[in-house]
Design a protein that fits this description.
The chain is an all-alpha fold and about 325 residues long. The protein has one domain. Helices cover about 80% and strands about 0% of the residues. The chain contains 14 helices and no strands. Helix 4 runs antiparallel to helix 5. The longest helix has about 40 residues.
Length: about 325
């Protein structure tokens, strides 16, 4: 690991610690520990099983896109790729996508950039799904959820931009547009630079991967797995509700809301969502449901740690499996 990557790790870890501090600040430790002890660990275990199944579904869905690239892909390789992605994110956020592409590219013989193109397509679908689910949640309980989304997420974002919605739109559209236009206008002189050619070749590979991915077989099965995957995410959230005293207050719609809120926590670039997940989920429970800081942290901790345990377990399985199979292949080659 070079010093730049090490600096990123330290910075992200510092951010995680800061968020953890603000999350745990002011809680009653005796009540917090009692909340953890009184949890129903059967439902926590169920959330682990449902979470592991969601990883399998994600891997199966990704494999459908990869099959369009013209080479056979084993289910176990895509599952291990997903596991490695989650494991890597606990060290360096956002590096997980690179790690899983590397696993599949190495095991299948596909080009790394083409595999990366399939991940971009997959993540695009996920962003669309999350947006649709967020809107659905806000509409189902506009009086509560919609108010939370506006006052706790949208308004603070706009405030950071000086209260200008127009500025937010300009930044979101204008900057990428200017960058693309400049690259297009100066593509010939840029093409003479070696580093620019490598960048162009890299993005051409991504483009080719995306184009091929749109020709994926079994599109209906892909969309079925997409719905199933998000359903398992909601199921994981609901299992966590059943594991806590909140089972008497919250229902499946609330599980959907907490899944959406938790998703934003995982997006923050910190190792394994640590701190960010705790902060935003506790904030939602306190702001929307009027729970105490301590009760909110009990739920957030159980939810995050059960999911984190599943991710680490899946990632360790991938490491062990690939290590063993690599050694077996080496022995067969020498013999």
């Amino acid at each position: 690991m070079n010093w730049k990557k090490l600096l990123k790790v330290v910075l992200f870890a510092t951010l995680a610690l800061v968020l953890l501090y603000f999350s745990f600040r002011g809680i009653r430790w005796n009540d917090f520990l009692e909340g953890l002890r009184s949890a129903d660990y059967f439902w926590i275990l169920m959330s682990v099983f449902v979470g592991a199944f969601s990883f399998y579904v994600r891997a199966a869905r990704w494999r459908i896109i990869l099959l369009s690239l013209g080479k056979p892909i084993k289910r176990i390789d895509t599952f291990n790729g997903v596991g490695m992605a989650y494991l890597t994110n606990f060290t360096l956020p956002r590096a997980g996508e690179v790690a899983r592409c590397g696993v599949v590219a190495q095991r299948s013989g596909l080009g790394f950039d083409r595999v990366l193109g399939t991940v971009i397509l997959e993540r695009t679908f996920d962003m669309i799904c999350l947006l649709i689910i967020t809107i659905l949640v806000a509409l189902l309980r506009m009086d509560v959820f919609g108010h939370f989304m506006i006052t706790r997420i949208w308004d603070p974002f706009i405030d950071r931009l000086g209260g200008s919605i127009l500025l937010a739109v300009i930044l979101a559209i204008g900057i990428p547009a200017i960058l693309i236009i400049n690259v297009y206008l100066f593509r010939k002189p840029l093409g003479k630079l070696k580093i620019a050619r490598k960048i162009f070749d890299f993005f051409r590979g991504i483009r080719d991967g995306l184009v091929q991915s749109l020709k994926m077989p079994r599109k209906g099965y892909f969309f079925f797995l997409t719905v199933l995957m998000w359903a398992t995410y909601v199921g994981t959230s609901y299992c966590t509700i059943l594991a806590t005293p909140l089972r008497d207050q919250l229902n499946l719609t609330d599980a959907l809301f907490l899944m959406v809120v938790g998703s934003f926590g995982w997006v923050v670039p910190v190792q394994g969502g640590i701190g960010a997940f705790h902060f935003i989920v506790t904030l939602a429970l306190v702001s929307v449901y009027g729970l105490t800081q301590t009760s909110g942290m009990v739920f957030a901790t159980i939810s995050h740690e059960s999911q984190a345990f599943t991710m680490l377990l899946t990632g360790l399985f991938a490491v062990i499996y690939m290590s063993v199979t690599s050694k077996n292949k080496s022995k067969q080659t020498r013999s």
